[in-house]
What does this fold into?
Amino acid sequence: MFLGQTLLDSLTPPVKGERILRQIWFIGWKSMLVIALTGTFTGMVVALQGFPTLRRVGSEALLGPMVSLSLIRELGPVLTALMVTGRAGSAIAAEIGIMRSSEQLDALELMGLDPLRYVVVPNVLAALLALPVLTVVFDVIGTLGGYLVGVRLLGLNGGTYFGEMSNYVELRDIWGGIYKALAFGLLIGWVCCYKGYHSRFGAEGVSAATTQAVVNASVLILVCDYFVTSVVF
Amino acid sequence: MIRVENLWKSFGRQEVLRGVSFEVKQGEFMALIGGSGGGKSLLLKLLVSLLKPDKGQIWVSGRDVAVFSRPELESLRSRIGFVFQGGALFDSMTVYDNVAFPLREKTRLGEPEIRRKVTDELELVGLRGAEHKYPAQLSGGMLKRVALARALVRDPEIVLFDEPTTGLDPVVSRAVLELFGAVHHRLQLTGILVSHEIPRIFEIVQKVAMLHEGRIVAVETPERLRASPDPVIQQFVDGKPSAQACLSGGTGLR
It folds into this structure.
């Protein structure tokens, strides 16, 4: 019901464009560094782990496709979503929880402003829009991280790394990753806002809401990942 | 102006309000007193439909609030200013933006007009010069003043004060209450003030309603309430807990 009302409010005017942009900046832009770091090292470790295995079966040339497909289809969307949940989702839940606890949501309502429309909708829409972009950044930087390890460190030919990648990566892989990112963005926005919105009063209530938001969103991301994977790929 | 009839509200098995009735006439300033956790703040939230009663009616300007449509409820709320216990100011906004917020969001006034109104309200509550401060940079007394300015900025007919002096020292508390009294007198607002500041609030209100065990046990002028022979009222007005309550940790009211 909470999600349904939020989506309905998202589609009907007035839409708070300025607040959505501010939240995109907060969820998207401010997560960029952590996503870049996570992406780099994830790509590097996939290459480092994958290279010896592929060499055992004489398929080192497939390192590029292995790194990029792992990132695009699975690791990129999931790890991006988990990082955003930890960095921005927790902050969203805490902020809304504090607004509930300090009666700021009641104050909005008494001013004739719908707290769902004013506070929740911008966060859900921002998460929905930011996650695909962050996921693409993760994928690209992760692929470059894999290149660093595979080509610069382990001696694979650079042309082979990217050439094989273009042979194996299809458009539907990329779209599949984007669909996952959209689903996770909606899920993060929904769960974290819901937990903050229904937070109990006081520091303990806000703390519990924040913890539940992160734990529930993280678990649901992994559950949702299975179902989206089974439908999309 | 405000009439409450036989209002009931429970949470689970706990009956907080058990048939509350009272009336506040136009231009009247009424204090609502009673023990902590007795449902005073709850009553204010019921008046503005932040919560729904289990039973009973609330009439504002002769109309039953329960049958209001959403636009009608918004229109009613635009006529009511609410000063929350903790101020409920938006942390991310300056004092100026907090006070300007209802005007920017709910009126079509231009920025020059908004600036004039906000400046006037801040002048009224003695906070000219604090426009650029954030709530975290304000003292408790200043927070309450900003909350009052925000509540008044849309020229409400009714102002509800939910324990506005909680957490303030006696000097600031007195100053804030005097300010509320002066504002009420100057603007001829209808007001309900929930407070434990007895006897200070008796100096600024015309009548006092006492809530005890979920019911209004007295609605009197401050003078008559002080003179009431009822031991429950006397106990609360004098602030003397019963020995039994002291031992059990209760409110002290029998």
Residues 21-232 of chain A form one domain. The radius of gyration of chain A is 20 Å. Chain A has one domain: 21-232. Chain A has a mean pLDDT of 91.
